[in-house]
Amino acid sequence: MPNFKIEQPVISPALEEILPEYLEDELLIKHHLIRETSYINSHHDNLIFEKSHFVKVDFTSSSFNRFECVDCLFESCDFSNIEWIGGAFHRSIFKNCKLTGANFAEGLLQNCQFIDCTINYASFNFSQMKRVFFSDCQLNFSELSEVKWKNLELVNCELNKTNWIGTNLNQLNLSSCQFENVSLSPDLIKGFIVNYEQAIIIGMTLGLVLDEPR
Questions:
Q1: Is the dihedral of CA 119, 141, 90, 43 positive or negative?
Q2: CA distances from 90 to 17, 58, 72, 110, 205 (A)
Q3: For labelling alongside 111, which of 58, 72, 152, 210 has CA 20 to 30 A away?
Q4: Per-residue pLDDT tens for 103-150?
Q5: How far apart are CA 51 and CA 29, in angstroms?
Q6: Which residues contact 7 (CB under 8 A, 6 or more apart)?
């Protein structure tokens, strides 16, 4: 698990009430606490969130172009179907968040944690991940193709029907995770760490035939 902590922001109630006015283009949002607010179907360019804390904020179906997030904590937020294509995330934590259908494609995630999050049907295609940690997350049907990663950890996650085509799985450890079917590139699985049951599943996916003892 990455070893860092989010600095907890301090904000007056009066300022918190006017924060929706601050969500404009080309803006740095820094040292803010934003809670129980909705930005559904919003669109923003050139936004930077820094050292901020979001609690129960709804960004469903929103899009952020040229987005950057630094030292932020997101708790119980809804990012379903959000577009973060090409976004950059540094030292940020997602706890108990809903990210179903979230699009992180072509993005950079560095020193990030996802804890107890629902991330089904999400896309991380062509992204870069450095020191990223997923714990107790659902990533079923998610896309992780052509991912360039270093120090990627997944612990006790659901990964059924995930797509890892084009991603080098050498030294990736999924032995504590659960899946019944995954897609991967046969030439990129050398050194892939799985448990016994997963090895059978992967072997059958690659066309091996299991000869049952008579």
A1: negative
A2: 27, 21, 8, 5, 35
A3: 58
A4: 999 999 999 999 999 999 999 999 999 999 999 999 999 999 999 999
A5: 8
A6: 51, 71
